[in-house]
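Quick one, T. Sequence first:
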Amino acid sequence: MSRLPVAERREQLIEAALNVASREGIDGATVRAVAAEAGVSLGVVHYCFRDKDELLRAMAHTITERNLGRGMAEMPATAPARDLIMGVLDGLWANIRATRGPQLLTYELTTTSLRHPELQQVGIDQYVVSWAAAEQFLEDIERAAGVTWRVPRHIVARSIIATIDGFSLAWLVDGDADAGYQGLRLFAEHLVTLAVPLDEAALLGDLTVADQAPQERTAEVRSIAPPVAPAGVTALA
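Structure tokens:
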């Protein structure tokens, strides 16, 4: 077995854990199974991750980052808000359809974190990252399309993530990708109506998005979350 820097070894183990969990579910992603998938000893896994809590958090973070990164194509410098919103919608839905296993694993990680208090931070981290990415998307639209929003940005961001979650989960259940896409398009059309050109907003006194920066709300979320058990979960061998 070749020696790798810890950061690279962690990435290798996260990838192995995602492969196992996508095939067999969270319960199947034991330390022993992850070690076998990666071709390393149990000690290597324990050296890189102090417990399964830490490994699950790393898996959740990686999935969330990939889901958002694949769907968020680079935005043009200038374009109408509707074109920008629909373009991102198409990219997101194409990614969701192409990654059924990871999508299912995303929800499994969330529900697992809700049933085990010591894993609660896993679900919190998933949504903190998703909300922040949605806010960044809205800020990018503001710059590219010269608009503001009728509703505070952080509320719009939560609505985006909740809608994507709902239609994605429905598609995982019934397999009707067209129905999911049409539902997302309907929401996107509504989102377009919330975008107001800056000159029009100034005339109407409708500049409503002078709210907190995403990182400030992230700090608030973390500050109100119940503390995670310091020892985490005992690794399953």
